[in-house]
User: Fold this.
Amino acid sequence: MAAVLTNDITKQFEGVAAVAGISLSVPDGEFMVLLGPSGCGKTTFLRIICGLEKQTSGDILIGGTVVNEMPPRARGVAMMFQSYGLYPHYKVRDNIAFPLRTQRVAAAEIKKKVDWAAELLGIEHLLDRRPRQLSGGERQRVALARALVREPTVLLLDEPLSNLDAKLRASARNEIKQFQQRVGTTTIYVTHDQVEAMGMGDRIAVIDHGKVRQVGTPAAIYDDPADRFVATFVGSPPMNLVAWNGGHLGFRPENFLPKELVEDGAVTEFSFRVERAEYLGSERIVYGTLEGLESEQEVTAKLPPAHVPLESIRPGEVHPFAVRNSALCYFDKDGKRAIRH
Amino acid sequence: MVAIAEKSLKRRSRFQFILDRPKVLGPLFVSPAILYVLALVGVPFLLAVYYSVSAYTIYSQSYKFVGLSNFFQIFQSDIFRTTLANTFIFTFGSQILGLVLGKFGALLLLRPFPGRKIVRALIVLPWAVPVALATVAWEWMFDSLYSVINWTLIALGFIDRSDAPNWLGTPHLAMLCVMVVNAWRFFPFAIVIFLAGITAVPQDVIDAATVDGAGFWRRNYQIIVPIIAPIVVVGLIFGTVFTFTDLSIVYLLTMGGPVNATSVLGFEGFQVGILSGDVAHGAAISLVMLPVLLVLVVVMLRFIRRREI
Assistant:
């Protein structure tokens, strides 16, 4: 186990910057999530850390050692790929044993470790099958067992849940997180799914266009976004942005409520014209526009059906809405976060 | 409305949509191919079987049935036994050489370099050039007097003019020559097979092997080659069948010489059956190829089925 430190990593592909200077510090044992839209450079960055790609400039330190010139096998990292990359011609047992065989571990030791990894992930009964005989969830466990069997210094996961169906994804998310807490391996997890990022990460690094926009705990990323990109990328539906004093005023849809629900404390009031509503069971998403501002502004409100009866807010009506001032974020004209409103 | 529908239903002949039935249409479409195979492969094959158990020669065209005596006779002949051994050496030697060249050629062609597309196109040439043309060119390269290979070796000072090898005149060297020419013809095909196989291996699998600590050799021989083995064996089946039955290179380069050192079954069958007119023995020699190839092909197909992943 080891801390990972990257210092101003860049990567150019034929003149195009895929990674444009990422400096990131992942302490020992942390679960760090790299979150960003597809094509933002997060996978390239992960491949640079494990050594499959060579950075154009910048340093990588794993456990305090500069590993820039080391091949992947010397870095002691393990990586789990999006489509798992299991060896189709090997049985599960040999798949898991492969990283040990390349290190010339003694046969008895290999058997012990394979059994340990298989037991850890509950796949003992699959050891004599081949990858094609496994379901998606089972393949994912085998891939994880293969990554963990040699007790890597750092575990790199590249969108490991994207090939699973929605139901399986939720349980796998939980499993990976619990599992990481148990073994305590430093983990870097790449995803474009904010639910995974929010649910699993000790900290999240939001990446866009090859740059880190913000690093912070899930709560900090959500409540205190550093810029407009982070504000709109994280959260579903995304943060409302309203043109305001040359910049933008942002507030989360769930903080945009009928005025009578936000009586206490300092509030900012809006006049909300309701256009359309979606009832999603646990919540109601209401789309509409703000009236009485310089221009018409489209906003979304997320209402708790338990507190706001269905019949009280209907399309076509105009209602007084309000946001607590503490829940407002102000972004200047460059999209950067300014002082709290 | 119902009445009208029923009426029109009754009027339709039961053969009106006969071509829509897969059970009719399928055999109809396949039948030309079956007829063609029967006419061009089946009939000559049965004819050969018949000749091989008859006493037919072009001088005495008797269809007299002689049982398996033709086969006993050819197996007692030293020339035939040499020929059989030569065929195996020729086939496996050139296949192994072709596969090795193909594997490394494919690895080289996978790397990006300027002009790769042109090289990829040119590499297919040995395969596309007519065998007669190519073999004549090779014949000059191996010629005892004008050999450009010898000339180069002499110019580089590796050998002396007095002990320059007589490529096609020395038994072992002649065998090496026909193998090299055949491997040279076969290797572009092997490259294409390997390229197709290697590009089909998911990048994730290769990356996983790299991160798992596999170096170049382990990645190639424990991951890539086993994964593409079924594809390579299909190529090998083609190569083996074509080489085992081939007579063109031997015929054009050495005529089976020196002293039958490069005689192969196809050539020997042609020599005895067509050139000497002993059709019965020629057919028997050629038919020996059938069980051998059958066993080889069945073994290889079984291997593929077992390895299907």
